[in-house]
Amino acid sequence: MSEPTEELSNKPFVARLASVYLSILALFCFKLFVKISLNLLTYFYIVRGNRKEAARISAEFYDHGQKHRPWADRSPLHDAASQGRLLALKTLISQGHSVNVLTIDHVTPLHEACVGDHVACAGALIDAGANVNASTIDGFTPLFNACTAGSVACTEILLENGAKPQSLVYHPSPIHEATRKGHYGCVEALVTWGADVDVDIPHLGTALYTACVCQELECARKLLREGASVQKGKSLDSPLHAAAEKDCTAVAKLLLDFGADINARNAALQRPVDVAPASSPTEGFLLIHEVKPRRLGQLCRQCIRSCVGRDRLRLLPNLPLPNRLRSYLRYQ
After folding, report:
1. Exposure of 188 in the CB half-sphere (CA atoms within 13 A)
2. What residues contact residue 73 under an 8 Å CB cut-off, 6+ apart?
3. What range(s) does the SOCS box domain occupy (predicted)?
4. Contact 222/258 with Cβ under 8 angstroms?
5. Mean pLDDT across the chain, nearest whole number?
6. Rounded to an integer, what distance in angstroms lies between the CA atom of residue 101 and that of residue 217?
7. Domain 73-294 - what CATH class?
8. Alpha-carbon span 150 to 217, nearest angstrom
């Protein structure tokens, strides 16, 4: 008789425990449903172009009660930085505004200062603790923005304060952007601070390939002098293929001076001369170059630079050689 009595007395407790667990599960499911609904609503407003309402929802429901909310549509700091109003910017910072406040797209005031080439504002934000490696939802960093604007001063101040000269593989690349737009000073600063001149972005190729596609002769020359591989382009397309296709004789000549293979073949088994426009100056130049032997001095220079290695090319000026020979080895 005792066993049935115990079983009956335990049933209410088990039922209450099950009810508690069901309540917790229901509360969790409700909160999950609310979060998903808010995310969908925010996305809907973004798609419809109403970013202000999306930012309000994010700020109200995700950052309630915080002193400095990390989300805002456009803060006063963003406006001051984008317009280069240094005094207003410093006043806002002194009043306690967060220098790392984000828009709905994760744009910081430092992004705005750099894309506007406002170096004084960028410096003030960095001194106040702005994140120099902050990334937007599209992967843009302040350094990328500085290279887009061609701001050498902003590029240098960012690098001096810890900005990474190299981006992740699938993120927008500062050195590609600076090369694409022909901003030689930015390319020079990036290389000085350790950017890899041979970094290969799958959909863009190397920075040298980008320079050839955009016909940026001086940027291509700088990259080659710093040891960029003359054969590394985009997939099987070499930089010389790009120069030939764009009918840029000056870039094609530069590449051949640095040892480009005139017989390299792309994925379609075409040589550079095959992709050059018919009867173009570049096609004629390549046809003549095919039958001309290379100069011994040029071959020796390429051999010496190859033996020295890319990482030690910067030491060439220290070699105990006549100035004229050192300049020759450095393509100057």
Report:
1. 11
2. 51, 52, 55, 56, 103, 104
3. 287-332
4. no
5. 84
6. 40
7. mainly alpha
8. 17
Average pLDDT over residues 321-331: 82
Weakest-pLDDT range from 64-78, 88-102, 305-319: 64-78
Long-range contacts of 190-197 (CB under 8 A, 24+ apart): 190/147, 190/155, 190/159, 190/165, 191/222, 191/223, 191/226, 193/159, 193/165, 194/165, 194/166, 195/165, 195/166, 196/166, 197/223, 197/226, 197/227, 197/228, 197/310
- The residue among 175, 176, 186 whose CA lies nearest residue 149 is 186
Give the span between the Cα atoms of 267 and 37, in whole angstroms.
48
Binning pLDDT at 50, 70 and 90, where does residue 49 land?
A: low
Q: Is the pLDDT of residue 128 over 90?
A: yes
**What are the structure tokens assigned to 56, written together?**
């309000």
- Run of H or E residues at 112: helix 109-115
Q: Where are the domains of the chain?
A: 30-64, 73-294, 295-332
Residue with tokens 């930015």: 186
Mean per-residue pLDDT, 287-315: 82
**Residue 72 confidence class, pLDDT cut points 50, 70, 90:** very low
The pLDDT score that the predictor gives to residue 26 is 81
pTM for this structure?
0.74
Query: Which of the four pLDDT bands, split at 50, 70 and 90, describes residue 303?
Result: confident
Residue that has been written with the tokens 């002194």 in this structure: 94
Task: Please provide the CATH number assigned to the domain covering 295-332.
Answer: 1.10.750
Q: How far apart are the C-alpha atoms of 158 and 330, rounded to whole Å?
A: 29
DSSP state of 234: B
